[in-house]
């Protein structure tokens, strides 16, 4: 018989006044050594994991659980949720201490502990032992972190691992997910769309679906929790990861370096993006703004061009054209680039090729990385490819990057042109 002592669902109802929805019940009652849960955004992953870790902690004195997330901020989300639940519950009397520094730890009187850690500096986790590890947004934690450091943490006690996430490429998360589907002993896997959570607004979900399009990558990955084939992606996610490095921008101009610039000019609701690469293909400057007067746009582009003495291309399609002209009149010369399906395809192909050859490096700019991930080809009714971000997406960062890369590729011409005007 299920009682609160053996069932996390009843435990949560009785002591935390929290009623799991049906899909959360399935997860909370699952048994397995490695449990992998692919679930859409706002499914209720963090709340379910908070309850899950609390139940385990009460049931198993003298155990250590780690909640590990890709970043420090994310790791504190479940931790804060746990504290929020405890604050309204009789169980808060069992808290021995709460520490926040150097990282969050919750210790109960019966000596079970919950630690919250981030996986970005995963080497710091080396040598820690755990009875149980919960990976929140697991798919965004690097393979190396999981295989080299997190899995070995469980070796001492033959511990349990729970991974919960929206999907992201085909990495460790995908691998354990598949093992569960294939019935490998000890592995259990689930997949739930965001709509499984009855507590979020279904109008919101419907709006997202029509905004992005039912067949869009973003809808399928983030809300349906589908694993998408890398071949359906213009920029496979492992490819994006392979060119991302941690560094600060802007990187100041070096005397001996040559710089290449790409500018995508805002049309209606989108953004103007200015990107500068150095001669090694490293992104050294990024700027993005919208809803600014024409003169502001011209001045910003002119200032950045002068700052780096950069060569390159500017989108001269539509409203981009008068901007290009105004710059030229100011003595700031960038090559005009007219976007067509073919010309876009060409610069996107060049960008992808450069990424494959590791000839470019970008820092962690969330807007840029997000646009690269979801950049997709859309079929026209005529059957030809239309290379464009869908409505509701932006591709301005990608196009600015592609223009800068294209400028660097055509540098012979750019240089000789420059000599002409000197
Ligand atoms: N069982 C539940 N009962 C009530 N509200 C819930 C429940 N599970 C999730 N929610 C609510 O749904 C939203 C998303 O939950 P969250 O755990 O943050 O999702 P995720 O981590 O999947 O993004 C939050 O507003 C949360 O309070
Ligand atoms: Mg969450």
From TrEMBL:
Pfam families documented for this protein: Terminase_6N (PF03237)
Protein name: Phage FluMu gp28-like protein
Xref: InterPro entries: P-loop_NTPase
């Amino acid at each position: 018989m299920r009682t609160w002592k053996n069932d996390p669902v009843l435990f949560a109802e009785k002591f935390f006044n929290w009623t799991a929805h049906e899909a959360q019940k399935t997860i909370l009652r699952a048994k397995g050594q490695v449990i992998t849960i692919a679930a859409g955004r706002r499914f209720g992953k963090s709340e379910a994991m908070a309850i899950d870790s609390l139940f385990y902690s009460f049931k198993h004195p003298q155990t250590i659980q780690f909640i590990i997330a890709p970043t420090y901020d994310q790791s504190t989300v479940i931790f804060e949720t746990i504290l929020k639940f405890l604050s309204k519950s009789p169980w808060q009397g069992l808290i021995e201490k709460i520490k926040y520094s150097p990282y969050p730890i919750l210790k109960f009187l019966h000596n079970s502990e919950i630690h919250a850690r981030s996986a970005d500096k995963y080497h710091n986790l080396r040598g820690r032992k755990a009875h149980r590890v919960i990976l929140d947004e697991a798919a965004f934690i690097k393979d190396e972190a999981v295989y080299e450091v997190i899995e070995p943490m469980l070796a001492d006690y033959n511990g349990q691992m729970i991974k919960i996430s929206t999907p992201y490429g085909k990495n460790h998360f995908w691998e354990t997910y598949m093992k569960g589907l294939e019935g490998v002993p000890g592995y259990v896997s689930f997949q739930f769309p965001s709509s499984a959570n009855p507590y979020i607004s279904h109008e919101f979900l419907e709006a997202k679906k029509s905004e992005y399009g039912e067949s869009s990558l973003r809808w399928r990955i983030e809300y349906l929790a589908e694993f998408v084939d890398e071949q359906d992606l213009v920029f496979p996610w492992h490819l994006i990861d392979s060119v991302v490095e941690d560094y600060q921008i802007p990187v100041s101009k070096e005397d001996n370096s040559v710089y290449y610039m790409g500018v995508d000019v805002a049309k209606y609701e989108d953004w103007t993006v200015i990107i500068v690469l150095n001669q090694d293909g490293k992104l050294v400057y990024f700027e993005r703004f919208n809803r600014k007067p024409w003169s502001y746009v011209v001045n910003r582009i002119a200032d950045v061009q002068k700052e780096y003495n950069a060569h390159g291309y500017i989108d001269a399609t539509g409203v981009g054209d008068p901007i290009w002209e105004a710059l030229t009149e100011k003595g700031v010369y960038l090559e005009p680039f007219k976007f067509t399906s073919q010309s876009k395809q060409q610069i996107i192909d060049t960008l992808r090729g450069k990424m494959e050859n590791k000839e470019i490096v970008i820092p962690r700019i969330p807007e840029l990385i997000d646009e690269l991930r979801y950049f997709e080809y859309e079929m026209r009714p005529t059957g030809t490819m239309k290379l464009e971000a869908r409505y509701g997406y932006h591709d301005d960062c990608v196009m600015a990057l592609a223009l800068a890369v294209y400028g660097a590729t055509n540098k012979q011409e750019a240089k000789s042109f420059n000599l002409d005007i000197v």
